[in-house]
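Holo prediction. Input below; ligand is tryptophanyl-5'AMP.
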Amino acid sequence: MKVFSGIQPTNELHIGNYLGAIKQWVDLQNQAECVFCIVDWHAITVPYDTKVLQTKIHEVAAVYLASGIDPQKSIIFVQSQVKEHAELAWLLNTITPLGDLQRMTQFKDKSAKFLQNINAGLLNYPVLMAADVLLYQTDVVPVGEDQKQHVELTREIARRFNSKFSEVFKLPKAQIPKIGARIMSLTEPTKKMSKTDKAESRIGLFDSPEQIKEKIGSATTDSGKEIRYNPKEKPGISNLLTIYSSFSNQSIKDLEKEFTDQSYQLFKQKLADLLIETLEPFRAQKAKLESNPSQLNEILTDGANHARAIAQDTIQKARSAMGLN
Ligand code: TYM
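Structure of the complex:
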C-alpha cells in the first residue's frame, strides 16, 4: 500500500493539522510505503512573507519528526525540490474542467478571505495537489475532512486521464480519522480551526504553556453548565471534548462521565495541562533542530532524491501516454 500526504508551510501548524492528518501518518508508516511532503508551492497561493518561508518549511519538518515520522521508514521532502510536481500539474490542467475547480469549497472560502489576491494559482491548487498524489501511485491519502473534496477530484482527474490516454495512474482514496477530522476554532466553534485565522482561535503545536493556558481558558463555551457532547447545542464544549479525547485516547463517553458535575473551569484546566504535556516534544524538537540545521537539510535532500526517482518514473509514463517525449 502506498500513502501520500502533505501540509502547507503557512503560518504555524495547529492541533487540527496534527489530529486530522499527522496522527494517522505515524500509524501508517509501519504498514505502508509513505511519502510526506511539505507543499511550499501550495503555500504561496495566499499572501506570505518571503523572508520567513524557509523557516516555516523547517518548522513543518520539525513537526513531522517530533510526531514520530521516521525518515528511515518514510520519505520526507519539500515539494519545490521535485520539479516533476509542476510538470504533471501542467499536464493535468489540460484535462481538468474549469467548472470543477470553480466549485471547490476551499477555492470559494479562500477567494472570499483573500479578496485582493484571487490568483490563478488559488484556482489551480487542486490540480497541483492531484499531481502530488498521482506521481507516487498513491492508494491512500490520510487527511482531515476539509481535504476530502480535493482527493475526490484527484480520483476523477486520474480516471479521466486513464480513459482518455492510457492506464497510467492508480485511483487514490482519502482516509479521514473517526475523531478529530474537523477540529473547530476556539473562538468561533462553528468554524474550522485554521492557520490563517487569528492566533487566539487555535492552539499552535509550538505554543508555550502560558499561551496554551490562556487560549484554552478563554475558549468560547456556552451559558450552560454541563460537560456534554452535543455539537449543535454546545459546539464549544463539544470541540474541547473532541480535542481532549483525541489527545488522551479516552472516549468522549468516558470523559463525560469523568467530568459529571465538574465546572467548565476545572475541565479547561485539565485540558490545558494535557495539551502542555503532549505538546512538549514539539517545542523540544524545534529547539533541537534549530541548534543543528544541517541535520534537517540532509533529511530533506535525501527525501527529495528518493521522491524524485519515483516521480520521474511516473512522469515519463504520463508524457508518453500524451504523445510527448
Ligand atoms: P493544510 O496545510 O491546509 O492542512 C494540512 C492537513 O491538516 C488538516 N486540517 C485539519 N484537520 C482537522 N481539523 C482542522 N481544523 C484542520 N485544518 C486542517 C487538513 O485536512 C490536511 O490534511 N491541500 C492540503 C495540502 C496538500 C495535500 C497534498 C494533502 C497539498 N498536496 C497532497 C494531501 C495530499 C492542505 O490544505 O493542507
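The radius of gyration is 20 Å. That is the main takeaway for now.
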